[in-house]
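Prompt: Have a read of the protein record below and flag anything odd:
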Amino acid sequence: MSPKVSVVVPAYNNEDYIAATIESILAQSFTDFELIIADHSSTDGTKAIIEKYSSDSRITVLDTEAGGGALRNWNRVTEAASGEYLKLVCGDDILYPRSLEVQVAAIEEHPEVTLVASTRDIVDARGVVVVPRRGLAGITGTVRGAEAVRRTVVVGSNIFGEPACVLVRRETLVKVGLWDSQFPYLIDETTYARVLLEGDFRAVVEPLAAFRISDSQWSVRLVHEQSAQAAGFHRWLRAEHPSVISAFDVTVGNARAWLMARIRRFAYLWLRRRMNTIDE
């Protein structure tokens, strides 16, 4: 029988963190899951570390050919999944022990919900919390998916968090065409929007994951590109769903995305010494 949940990890050059990521998934209080890990032709020791876990019956290890960006590997692990629900965890992030337990209960209590997200802690390279309980922009409980999408536009930032914060109905993700990389730095948020326009959103205020800031994060180097792509994302949603996103929403969201990019840049500069595992 297929597992209830597929946890999928698209790994790439995560040598310093991948073991902690895998261990956090294997330590879940909810046990009806499979773990699929695909190494995207890493050039460091990531693949060797992953292979150490290959004897665990819950784990499937795959290889992904080089090229294709994040989309290739994210779709690779997702296409291999068989669970009713899917959680993607990047190769340097952490799940807290009750993550699957809490989110599966939340989505099963509400059949109309297509996506559940929780707050998360922002941690440094050593796992020390920098910012606690980040995300959701004040949303609690269940809201219409369209309203949650509008909220993420107006806020100008991904209120749902990184994939480790999210549990999605796999059939809905397949229905919308898997991961959407038309805005590469917003591959998660764009896909969430597509999924949420098919159903409702459930917010869990308990932090259930940790997002690691490190010197390998693309967001450290490309905050300006992120704000430009956020504006493109907002305009695309407005064009595709004018009944959901207004022109005013786009104007406000674009301004806030620009501001958030600058705030993020200064935050990364302030935290730069905490973004790798080697002391300067």
